[in-house]
């Protein structure tokens, strides 16, 4: 059997662990051949790939990023790939393709599967917003990075009696903000799922200072936004992939709080540091399990499906089910977080 693997979309801690697992299971266990397409679907379209053997994946388990490179695919090129799906199967001689990626990558995987490519998807995103799986690898690492950052910022905020507004990733789902905010004991958490009123945050800060707690840390997801009419904040433009370019809610909120409070408020944008570096033990294990089960599914001919975590089990679910809607933070999880502010 000849298996192709690629990584697409934003990078994520744990990608290399999946690649390594696929190679170990396919090559060492079954004697299969594995080829890695470079720079995501672009490599598939351009015919750029290399053979992956045990030596080529040695030492990559703890490495961040992806040894194959990654990119986002324009919609026109995706249509081109779907139109030439059967030709690609014959050109590369692949019996299965394992794309590793988030919602956009898996949507493309579904389209390629519908066009005839034998696809087994593996979900990844630090945002943890893929439906049909309890967790995605990369999320645990991102939460840990954000939590450590807020732990550190608390001490400098307290020393200078400041308000720190920490912006974390999360376009449409606030899982990173929710869990890192809870873990760090943030005094306010703003999520995309629920518009916030800056007046509530002002009141919280004033009450803290009145009690002698002369600092505050507020965690805000990049996709969070104020309730209509509560604060001047514009929406961003749309990029070439159909994603909104956010205007920087962390900075805007910090300036708004400073204006209303008359106290120093500093924005801290964590940005891509959440994506980089060594994956946690949890993410390494989950990514390894996903890779193992993807190979098994390919050998069983379970195409048009993806790996998913359900409880403690890895199961296979239809790609169509995975990309129907994003998994957002439910109301009860927001209420849990609010109870410990």
From TrEMBL:
GO terms assigned for molecular function: 6-phosphofructokinase activity; AMP binding; ATP binding; diphosphate-fructose-6-phosphate 1-phosphotransferase activity; fructose-6-phosphate binding; identical protein binding; metal ion binding; monosaccharide binding
Compartment annotation: Cytoplasm
Keywords (A to Z) from UniProt: ATP-binding, Cytoplasm, Glycolysis, Kinase, Magnesium, Metal-binding, Nucleotide-binding, Transferase
Protein's UniProt keywords contain Magnesium: yes
EC class name: transferase
Site, as annotated: Important for substrate specificity: 104
EC number(s) per entry: 2.7.1.11
GO cellular component: 6-phosphofructokinase complex
Substrates-to-products reaction catalysed: beta-D-fructose 6-phosphate + ATP = beta-D-fructose 1,6-bisphosphate + ADP + H(+)
Cofactor: Mg(2+)
Binding-site list for ATP: 10, 72-73, 102-105
Binding site for Mg(2+): 103
Pathway(s) where this gene product acts: Carbohydrate degradation; glycolysis; D-glyceraldehyde 3-phosphate and glycerone phosphate from D-glucose: step 3/4
One BP term from GO: fructose 1,6-bisphosphate metabolic process
Family listed: Belongs to the phosphofructokinase type A (PFKA) family. Mixed-substrate PFK group III subfamily.
Quaternary assembly: Homodimer or homotetramer.
Protein name as catalogued: ATP-dependent 6-phosphofructokinase
Organism: Streptomyces chromofuscus
Lineage, opening ranks: Bacteria, Bacillati, Actinomycetota, Actinomycetes, Kitasatosporales
Gene field: pfkA
């Amino acid at each position: 059997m000849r298996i192709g693997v690629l990584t697409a979309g934003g990078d994520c801690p744990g990608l290399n662990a999946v690649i390594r697992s696929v190679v170990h299971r396919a090559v060492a266990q079954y004697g299969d051949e594995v080829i890695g397409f470079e720079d995501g679907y672009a490599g598939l379209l351009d015919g750029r790939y290399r053979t992956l053997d045990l030596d080529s994946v040695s030492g990559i388990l703890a490495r961040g990023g992806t040894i194959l490179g990654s990119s986002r695919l324009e919609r026109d090129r995706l249509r081109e790939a779907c139109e030439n799906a059967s030709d690609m199967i014959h050109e590369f001689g692949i019996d299965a393709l394992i794309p590793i990626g988030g919602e956009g990558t898996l949507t493309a995987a579904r389209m390629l599967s519908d066009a005839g490519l034998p696809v087994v998807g593996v979900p990844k995103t630090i945002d943890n917003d893929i439906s049909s799986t309890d967790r995605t690898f990369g999320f645990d690492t991102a939460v840990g990075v954000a939590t450590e950052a807020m732990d550190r910022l608390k001490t400098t905020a307290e020393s200078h009696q400041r308000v720190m507004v920490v912006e974390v990733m999360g376009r449409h789902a606030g899982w990173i903000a929710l869990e890192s905010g809870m873990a760090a004991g943030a005094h306010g958490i703003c999520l995309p799922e629920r518009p916030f009123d800056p007046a509530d945050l002002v009141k919280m800060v004033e009450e803290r200072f009145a009690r002698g707690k002369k600092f505050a840390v507020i965690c805000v997801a990049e996709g969070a936004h104020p309730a209509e009419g509560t604060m001047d904040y514009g929406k961003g433009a749309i990029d070439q992939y159909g994603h909104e370019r956010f205007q920087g809610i962390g900075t805007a909120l910090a300036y708004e709080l400073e204006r209303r409070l008359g106290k120093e408020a500093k924005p801290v944008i964590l940005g891509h540091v959440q994506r980089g570096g060594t994956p946690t033990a949890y993410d390494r294990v989950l990514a390894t399990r996903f890779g193992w089960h993807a190979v098994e599914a390919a050998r069983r001919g379970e195409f048009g499906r993806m790996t998913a975590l359900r409880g403690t089990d890895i199961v296979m679910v239809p790609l169509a089910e995975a990309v129907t809607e994003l998994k957002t933070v439910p109301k009860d999880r927001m209420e849990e977080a609010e109870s410990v502010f």
